[in-house]
Amino acid sequence: MGNLNDYKNIWVFIETECGKAKNVGYELLSVAKPLAQQKGCPLVAVVIGKDIEGVAKDAICYGADSAIIVDGPEYEYYTTDAFAKALTGLVEKYKPETLMLGATNNGRDLGPRVSCRLKTGLTADCTAIDIDEETGNIAWTRPTFGGNLMAVIMCPGHRPQMGTVRPGVFKKPAYEKSRTGEVIREEIHTAEEEIRTMLKERVNEVAEAVNLEEAEIIVSGGRGMGSAENFKLLEELAAELGATVGCSRAAVDAGWMPHAHQVGQSGKTVAPKLYFAVGISGAIQHLAGIAGSDTIIAVNKDPDAPIFEVADYGIVGNLNEVVPALIEAFKARKA
Amino acid sequence: MNICVCMKQVPDTNEIKVDPVTHTLVRAGVPSIVNSFDTYAQEVGVRLKEKSGGKLIVLSMGPEQAKEAVKSCLAVGADAGYLISSRSFGGSDTLATSYILSQAIRAVEEKEGLKFDLILCGKQATDGDTAQVGPEIAEHLDLPQITYALDILEENGEILVKREYDAGYDMISTKLPAVITVVKLPYEPRYPTIKSKMAAKKKEIPVLTEADLPSIDLTLCGLNGSPTRVKKTFTPVREKNGVKLEGMEPTDAAKEVVKLLDDAKLL
After folding, report:
1. What's the CATH class of domain A4-202?
2. Nearest to A84, CA basis, from A115, A50, A60, A110
3. Residue B101 lies in a domain
4. Is B247 in contact with A316 (Cβ distance < 8 A)?
């Protein structure tokens, strides 16, 4: 491990695919910035991908002081082997004190692989990050037991301190076009035979990528929707609000919606400003996935449905009547 | 195809309540179950085994009572099961847990006289929710990994994994042996029959301790081998005084909610 004091700087991993950054990387800059200021150390964006110099520059405009990039055709699509090799290589060379990744599927695939290779600690799915006053270590706060308990985790004797952070929990910082910083290009190449998995085919079940994790408004339906047909109603409401359509596990199991739309413990964890739960009773697995929502609006015909316990606004009624009424009311508001 | 399933016994999070006065979790009387994601790993493993032959062995690390969870896997198609249990393993975080499991996987291969082609885990345990142990086992064993599997298909000894992706799924092939973590399946796990339950009940579950793991380094186990420390825990405050509109005409209720959202500057 060497001397802990050899480890400096706060790093934020900016996830990309096909040269495009995921928002969560930029969101991490907003939580990492005050920590770097408190520590008096630079905030460094780390970008691995293909044709990503623009992403590195954007990261600087979003608040990073500098960026390190690993650019190559083998990083166009995510593979565990190539990304773990590149990221571990960078950490070993530069020795950051703290490394944050977005808690996306790929971030949660890469994080443990890298922390295990470095024999350091990783805290998953954080919702708050602070500096422990007593020790100066990072204090990572995360939900556990399906959101029933919060735990504060530290990694006192190992570096870097690593954590994944949920998308949508922190706001993307302001883009300052005038900001400049150094972009360091590191040559780390991964040979084809080192990559043991291969992407054979990407199947799009929905016309556009369902980006529930970054959605500001989500309109979700559950078992109470009754049919695939009824989801058209929700799509109409979503279109009116510029929202993304989600659903509960029951709606996927019934074959009404593809899994890509699923919110909850076996689906996506979301953190929108507004979450509409329509015909969703509110099983704990679903509630675990929506706990980060600012405001929850529930529509359900059962006045005792557990969803009303967490809803800020609830309407007890038949969704076939209430949803069209909501669409009309939102239309009227616009007019 | 020989398959290892790593399984965890967890408290049923559906049954966990928060004490309204002390704001702590009430764990007494909460039933223990097989982690739901692990039941998917087990089911897809059994299906692969039934198709291609070979053995499916379940490993679980935990206290003595986790033998019950191992037995419930034997009742739905596992050929054998082991419990990994020792005082020296207590207090392990994910790095130490995955190290011990990786050592146990090697020891069981030796004992059973086979090599695993696939090591399957659930995406995450529903108590810790970290999703780290699977990838860390893969790293300790230097194996390829595929996480967030929605299905695992086998054709002529080749493995193809349907992996969750924002707009649908990716089809990913992997060299074997490999570690795969499962999030969900297109079918439900099977139920035990009375006969299979009875048979599983009678089986002995061997316990592996450090004495059975010849190359284990105890400094990498338990609290000593764990880089992370839990500083404190607390229950999230959920003080919602939500507005519930009941018995209103749908149009009036809808208008009222839109007005309330507007007043609260939420739109």
Report:
1. alpha beta
2. A110
3. yes
4. yes
Structural domain range at position B146: 3-225
pTM of the predicted model as reported, rounded to 2 decimal places: 0.89
Q: What is the pLDDT of residues B134-180, one digit of tens each?
A: 999 999 999 999 999 999 999 988 999 999 988 889 999 999 999 99
Look at chain B and report how many structural domains it folds into.
Answer: 1
CA dihedral B87, B89, B92, B96 (to 10 degrees): 160
CB-based contact, B236 to chain A, within 8 Å = yes
Residue whose structure tokens are 């081998």: B225
Residue A1 has pLDDT above 60, yes or no: no
- CB contacts < 8 A, A to B, total 266
How many Å lie between the alpha carbon of B72 and the closest alpha carbon of chain A?
22
On whether any CB of chain A is under 8 Å from the CB of B20, the answer is no
In sign, the C-alpha dihedral spanning A196, A197, A200, A202 is negative
| CATH code at position B80 | 3.40.50.620
Within the 133-162 window of chain A, which residues sit less than 8 Å (CB to CB) from chain B? 139, 143-158
- Do B217 and A235 touch, CB atoms closer than 8 A? no
Spatial CA neighbour of A129 closest among A118, A116, A141: A141
Fold entry, domain A206-334: Rossmann fold (3.40.50)
Let me know if residue B212 belongs to a domain.
yes
Q: Is B267 domain-assigned?
A: no
Domain ranges of chain A: 4-202, 206-334
A204 inside 8 A of chain B by CB = yes
Q: Give the residue from chain A lying closest to B36, CA to CA.
A: A266
Whole-number pLDDT of residue A166? 86
Inter-chain contact A147–B238, Cβ cutoff 8 Å?
Answer: no
SS3 state of residue A296: strand
